[in-house]
Amino acid sequence: MITVKNLSKHFGGIKAVDGVDLHIDKGSITGLVGPNGAGKTTMFNLIAGLYQPTEGEIILDGEDVTELTSHQLFHKGLLRTFQIAHEFPTLSVLENLMMVPANQLGENLMNTWLKRKQIHEEEKALQAKAEEVVDFLSISHLKNESAGNLSGGQKKLLELARTMMVDAKVVLLDEVGAGVNRTLLKQIGDAIIRLNEERGYTFCMIEHDMDFISRLCDPVVVLAEGQILTSGTPDEIKSSDAVIEAYLGKGIKTEATH
Q1: What PROSITE patterns is this protein classified in (predicted)?
Q2: Where do the domains of the chain lie, and which CATH numbers do they carry?
């Protein structure tokens, strides 16, 4: 689904991403882990079109998308979420979802005069879609709540819901579990698994919670100093001496052997 070849991003003399080759299989949930400063977020920003690479290629579903912007990639079904959720705080959950699809008729001032009926029909269809999405994610009880009143975990669920409004193909999740309580984290994990299994979503996720990664991801790719250190199953990663030294800490190996 996504292949990056010799991908690099330099900021002055700093090589944030340095000659990375990576393949994300269609239908997979791939984990991307590593210490702070490893280049994970820069990698996401490159794939999502927020940064242009210093060198290298990005291939999406067989197409070279290296020079495309995030807006253009959005229309190709590649979406990126952020560690801090972005929402319209004064709008309800449903209204937030209805804002997602691009090129709506009501966005054109002339259409508000000439195509009122079509706009009304489009809004009804969008509301029906939004209702279906919140039901799928088990957040119907929040649909009329202002998004600004949601907890951090609920906002992460809203971000997942937004990806469903455009039938995303690939979703890049940036620390979806950060600051989320265990109950909501399980709900978010359940939603990701359902989207993967029932809707065919491909995910790549940056995450520091190895228990969460272990539940969801295979393979797991470890980034360190802008390069791929290793990749494998969660168990292989947790027992790798190189990973323990670079990232996980000495205690994890003892834990993994019990």
Answers
A1: ABC_TRANSPORTER_1, ABC_TRANSPORTER_2
A2: 2-87+167-249 (3.40.50.300), 90-149 (no CATH)
